[in-house]
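One-letter codes give the sequence; the integers encode the fold. A sample entry reads:
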Amino acid sequence: PIVEIDQPVSTPRSYRDILDTFIDAEFVEQFADFWPMRHEILGDLILVKIPDEVSTYQSEIAQAMLTQHVRIRMVLKDEGVSGEYRVRNLTPLAERIDNSINLHFDNDLNCRTQVKESGHKYWVDPTKAYFSSRLSKEREDTITSCRTLRNKLDHQLRICDPYAGVGPALVPLLAEDDLIAYAWGSDLNPEATTLMEDNLGEYKHADVHCEDALNLSKNPELRGSFDVLLINIPHSTLSHLPSVLPLLKESSPTLLRG
């Protein structure tokens, strides 16, 4: 049979393809080398770093991104991490409300969103606790390393993650059959541990605490009791090692991943 159909309307491959809808085409061309080339999607949020050269047009950039990504709720400007808890410094640029775009925000900003990674879902809030989807490959490699140790020891593992954040490294490990006997997840940031409790709540063999990692080995119930230790604390790993290494068992092979 011969049928007639309408050619599907092609969607823009990048927000840059529709920038001239919001900015004069002359300026789009003039600043061609400065428009952000990459951004990070967390659930229904986009985090984007905007060069100073085009910061004047950050609202237009956000509107173009919302137009291209129809399932995104909000675009936020990412100005890096700061403070003791390494929380991102984020500024909201544009938000989709029903079918319209809002450019004005009050103090009651809701950035809680659910992320799906490797078949697992967990809650994050980049304004309250650090999380990066770009570390997903590292988390996958941790699972592989833990499987290897589990086979070597021939028993389920006890794992400690003293810098767990919202728990993205623990969720896929706990979901593995016959891999983890017990997991301790803690973080210094109380906002992170609140989210971690939501993410690990279904796993009865996991405990969540708001604790300083440097004090954990002082607890006789934790000292020398773990097969696996995760250390995700950039710039401070070496200085923290003497305090957290005593958490590992001494009588059998153990795994340290940083």
